[in-house]
Amino acid sequence: MGFPVNRPRRLRRNETMRRLVRENHLRVEDLVYPLFVTQGQGFRKEIESMPGVAQLSVDLAVEEAQKAAELGIPAVILFGIPAYKDETGSSAWAEDEAVQRAVREIKKTVPQLLVITDVCLCEYTSHGHCGLLQGQEVANDPTLELLARTALSHARAGADIVAPSDMMDGRVAAIRTMLDHHGYQDVAIMSYAVKYASAYYGPFREVAESAPQFGDRKAYQMDPANSREALKEVALDLEEGADIVMVKPALAYMDIIRQVKDAVVVPVAAYNVSGEYTMIKAAARLGWIDEKRIVLETMLGFKRAGADIILTYHALDVAKWLKEGY
């Protein structure tokens, strides 16, 4: 029966009623906070295109990790800016590089905090691509060994979760095999299973110093026009041993988050990427939007789409706002 008997506004009439019938909930436990770590001591380099985000030396990254833990955020994900780059990205698996050092120090200082490490070569190669080159093509199979070596070095340092973001075919199986062979069966894999060749990554490439020196990444990252392919990538990564699957970017791909969520029984992560973050920050600086309301609405949109885990540069602010009872 319709109006006047059926009045949906009855369940919206005050905040207590709205909370009672709310379908989706954003929690601080849903958040992962990205950190960019590099060498040095007391070093902080602010990134103009990402206000509030910086390259941090290990000591300052540990302080940021402590802030996250104090706010109840359960995990950080680490990206490295290495001391040197070469054709093979060999600094990616160096035991004394920034990510490996940061993992050890964070686990020592904040042992309850989960540490996730990004596993890719783009930050470490002189050419900026995510694998070994043959001519100007990224060679898939030879790259797998190097990704596995990198993941192993992170596990040895104490990482709880490794997160391959390279989009090479077969990399989850290569990493799982390497970890298991060396006794790290309990280290989980969060695969960037669905990673699109997106324009939203621009500011990230500034902070991570990972822009390709030639060409683009369309030969290995996904075509933004495709959705069925996302389910294929997810299925393959799960067969190979992924424990968590990720969709990246998030904002323009909520339909993909929902499709993946409906197709799997593992946790689904969504990466609220740098371009999405920067657009909100820029508009807020100009006074065009209410930053807090926009950010929280966006995060809730990811949850409604099906994300169990949200990687976001807004994490500290979101955690504070949630504690204030938004």
TrEMBL record:
GO BP annotations listed: protoporphyrinogen IX biosynthetic process
Known cofactor(s): Zn(2+)
Alphabetic keyword roster: Heme biosynthesis, Lyase, Magnesium, Metal-binding, Porphyrin biosynthesis, Zinc
Pfam families named in the record: ALAD
RNA-binding keyword on record: no
Pathway(s): Porphyrin-containing compound metabolism; protoporphyrin-IX biosynthesis; coproporphyrinogen-III from 5-aminolevulinate: step 1/4
Binding site for 5-aminolevulinate 1: 205, 217
UniProt enzyme class: lyase
Subunit structure: Homooctamer.
Biological function: Catalyzes an early step in the biosynthesis of tetrapyrroles. Binds two molecules of 5-aminolevulinate per subunit, each at a distinct site, and catalyzes their condensation to form porphobilinogen.
UniProt record similarity statement: Belongs to the ALAD family.
Name of the protein in its database record: Delta-aminolevulinic acid dehydratase
Organism listed in the record: Carboxydocella sporoproducens DSM 16521
